[in-house]
Amino acid sequence: MSLARDERAAARPSAARLDAWLAELDLIPQGGAEREGVVSRDIVLDGRSRRDIRMTIILDPGLGCLIWVHYAPPLADGFRKTYQRLLHWNDELPFVKFGLADEERITLSAELPPAGLGAPALGLALARLVAVCDLLADASAEWVWPHGQARPEPGPPSSLLARFAAELTELAPPEPGDESEPGAEPEPGAEPDPGAEPDPEAGAAEAEAEPQP
Question: pTM of the prediction?
Fold first, then answer.
């Protein structure tokens, strides 16, 4: 029984194994810590639109892995409007989650269970988070670069985006000429799309609402 327990303990992710995964992904930690078996590593990645995306990888051998993106500085606008937009994005984007931390700092995170945890799963999750930051760069510019801060020029992204591009096609940047804003919510009272198919149920409801002679 003790042998089986020792084998399970050896199979659990550790600081050395996390560092090995990062090395396999060609990533160099910028810092980290270890306390009571829980390991953290800080990394910085570049997207196509977002540069210097700071992330913290937290590995708990018994629970799995949490990747925490420091998405934006503390908010300066109304809490309610921001919260509604974050909830909308949480509905639109699977596998990631927006939230608010202390001082109303926006966070973006992804969780990985212990089963199947390794360099490929970690790399895909990191690439997905960078892709989401790119996808919503315009929609969240007022939070990421507040008070008139200059937006950095686009540049070559981290190699993870190309490495996992096939698994992230749904988060690819819009094609040239597509003026739709990714992640944008439709404004109340917006004009209907003239190219959209008519809704027969809506037409029937309007007919019933018309006053009869």
Answer: 0.74
